[in-house]
């Protein structure tokens, strides 16, 4: 439909990379979450991997984004993201934020994080805003993403890419109630 096409072209992702730190951030959510959705097509946990093209200050690079989202309400979730960008510029980014899900597959969100400029050995704060559209095929999702990181030194970075994900329904740690 036309509405879905508009959403498709108005997408933004919530992502980034920082290898070991991301694993440490994800561990508590994976181990201690007790939220399980009842609907067959909805998963409270989602792991995503995105391939992006990045641009800033007339330079370009490619990126690999790892993200984890935990849907704590029908339309809201927590997002953790980490990204590795290399090319004309090399940065690593890590952050957290909130994502708003819409029933049509469209999502939009924002968060805060840190961008590490590898060549300059400096860390800068960032504000991340992104959107995306997911087509779901059972537990698998795929879709376009677009995002911008507003960096504290005004050297903003823009991203466009494709995201692939996998929904998880983890077992609850709460014992079943007696009848």
Q: Which class best fits the helix and strand makeup?
A: mainly beta
How would you sum up the major sheet?
Answer: 8 strands, antiparallel, barrel
Distance separating the two termini: 47 Å
Q: Let me know the average pLDDT.
A: 76
Total helices: the number is 2
Regarding quaternary structure, what we see is: single chain
> What is the percent of helical residues?
10-25%
Number of DSSP strand runs: 9
What is the overall silhouette?
elongated
Secondary-structure element order, N to C: HHEEEEEEEEE
* Strand residue percentage: over 45%
Low-pLDDT stretches: 1-41, 172-176
Q: For the largest beta sheet, what order do the strands appear in spatially?
A: 1-2-3-4-5-6-8-9
- What's the gyration radius in Å? 17 Å
Task: Kindly describe this structure.
With 179 residues, this protein is mainly beta. Helix content is 12%, strand content 55%. It has helices spanning 2-9, 19-32, and strands at 45-56, 59-71, 76-87, 91-101, 106-117, 122-133, 135-137, 140-151, 157-168. An eight-stranded antiparallel beta barrel has the order 1-2-3-4-5-6-8-9. The longest helix has 14 residues, at 19-32. The chain is elongated. 35% of the residues are buried.
